[in-house]
Amino acid sequence: MDINEEEKTNGGMTEETDVSVYTKEDFTEGTGPFDYVYAFHDNKFKERQAIERMAAKARSVGVPGFKAMYTSYLKELRQLHESAVNYTQFENQPMELQCGEWTANDSGVYMDGAYGQREMACPHPIMPVQRLINIDTGIEKMRLAFQRGRRWREIIVDKSIISTATKIVNLSDNGVSVTPENANALVRYLAEVDSTNYDIIPEANSFSRLGFFAGEGFVPYVDNLVFDGDLNFRTIYNSITTKGRRSLWAEEIKRVRQYSAVAKIAIAASLASVLVPVCNAQVFFTHLWSSTSGTGKTVALMCAASVWGNPELGKYIQTFNSTQVGLERFAAFLNHLPLMIDEGQLDNGKFSVYQLAEGVGRTRGNKTGGVDRTPTWSNCVITTGESPLIKQSDGAGAYNRTLDIECKSSEKVIEDGQKTSAIVKNNYGFAGQELAIWLYANDKNQAIVRQAFEDNYRMMCQSDTTEKQA
After folding, report:
1. Cα–Cα nearest to 119, from 129, 128, 109, 127
2. What's the pLDDT tens digit per position in 157-181?
3. Nearest by Cα to 123 from 110, 111, 108
4. How remote is the C-alpha of 241 from its chain's centroid?
5. Is the model more confident about 467 or about 242?
6. 413 or 18: which leads in pLDDT
7. Taking the alpha carbons of 269, 270, 272, 277 in that order, is the dihedral positive or negative?
8. Is 327 helix (H, G, I), strand (E, B) or coil?
9. Has residue 14 got a pLDDT over 50?
10. Counting runs of H as helices and runs of E as strands, what totals does the chain give?
11. Average pLDDT over the chain, rounded to whole?
12. Share of the chain above pLDDT 70, in %
């Protein structure tokens, strides 16, 4: 065919090419007219114009249905493309995955459909990079990697979220560009990549609470497990680690224990938390209170927290959601580790000693009409306040589960609060880790603990202490 060299070209074709040169045989026996239209494939507006011009020419030579024929032409091209295996082509991508019919590059994730229409799943790179199986619940989650700007980011989401168009839009809160318009396409893309690369995408066990897991050990002191829990708990989870020198921590804690029986009890209660399930004991409270400030009860609580991790307020000792539901969720997350609540969080009238001491939260429905998993815990709760934890209206159950200890203004709990707090803020996390690992290393060690518990229990029951308090 004759082409004017002065006209603007597109893929070897011109926008003003005379389509009249095509004959009926070109449509029924060759691919020339279809190749002509496809040359404009990267420009959807120009491609649509070319489709209309060529459809009119096809009708004029006795060939109806050009648009349907062009759709078949595109399908054949896609099949040829698929046979060559299509891979993700994101810059600096964490891994290379097969992506089926989807084009996945730095322009986003999309699929070309009929009549030159493009279906966009996501306008930026996104891909599954890890499959997580929760060892406690069996729920499967997916770690997604996505790129906005120059930086790759990662989020962990329930499979149910990325499997439903109405739910996947919630990923917009995490920075993923997803709206009701592209939600269905994104669901299909992620599902196809997951199933196509099932043996390639790495799989790992995960956890969403702390404490002992049969067959695994005591979390977080277990390797090769991934935390997939609520983001609200990540701060406290990250705080449970070691820092500084064990010898400096041990020396200061020894001095604190020798100076004050109250501080000694708080530290002992912190360690005792992991013994509660081993001894089949009940959840119990240790409450330090004083109507005057400056007695050192908060520093004593920090010493107790330093057994497990960073004792700064807002780290292990959280500013808790002081509703009953919030406290239950935190207790269930810590599970066997002590729950610590500093003063100021207990004065809203919603705190119930008895409900927390039961070790079981309330069964609650969810938005989908089902029932959430009932939270459970078996630990110690250590609190501070300006008044006794137990009120006259509380029943015997609350009394039997609480050690209410007054910190008198005439007897400081901590001798040098500034020095002690400085030391435990920079040296922490050793004793709790050592105890938990030793306790669950073998059945013999747990038997030693249970025997000591039973011996002390029998001895205390000989006094006027009730069985539950003993």
Report:
1. 109
2. 999 999 999 999 999 999 999 999 9
3. 108
4. 19
5. 242
6. 413
7. positive
8. helix
9. no
10. 17, 16
11. 87
12. 87
pLDDT tens, residue by residue, 305-337: 999 999 998 899 976 555 677 788 899 999 999
Give Rg (Cα) of the chain: 33
CA–CA separation, 116 and 248 (whole Å): 71
If one counts every other C-beta atom within 10 angstroms of the C-beta of residue 75, the result is 12
pLDDT grade, residue 6 (50/70/90)?
Answer: very low
In 118-260, alpha helices (H): 159-162, 165-168, 183-196, 234-239, 246-259
Q: Which two tokens mark 173? A: 């809160």
Query: If 0-12 CB within 10 Å is exposed, 13-18 middle and 19+ buried, where does residue 127 land?
Result: buried
Decide: 322 and 351 in contact? Cβ < 8 Å.
Answer: yes
Q: Quote the CA–CA distance of 74 and 151 in Å, as a whole number.
A: 35
Distance of CA 407 to the CA centre of its chain: 40
Which pLDDT tens digit goes with each residue over 393-421? 666 666 778 888 999 888 889 999 999 99
Q: Are 387 and 356 in contact (CB under 8 A)?
A: no
In the block, tokens 């922490």 appear at 428
Element (H, E) at 122: strand 118-122
**Dihedral, CA of residue 271, residue 277, residue 281 and residue 285, to nearest 10:** 50
Residue of 78, 31, 33 whose CA lies nearest to 51: 33
| Distance in angstroms between the alpha carbons of the first and the last residue of the chain | 101
User: Which residue in 137, 391, 116, 380 sits closest to 268, CA to CA?
Assistant: 380
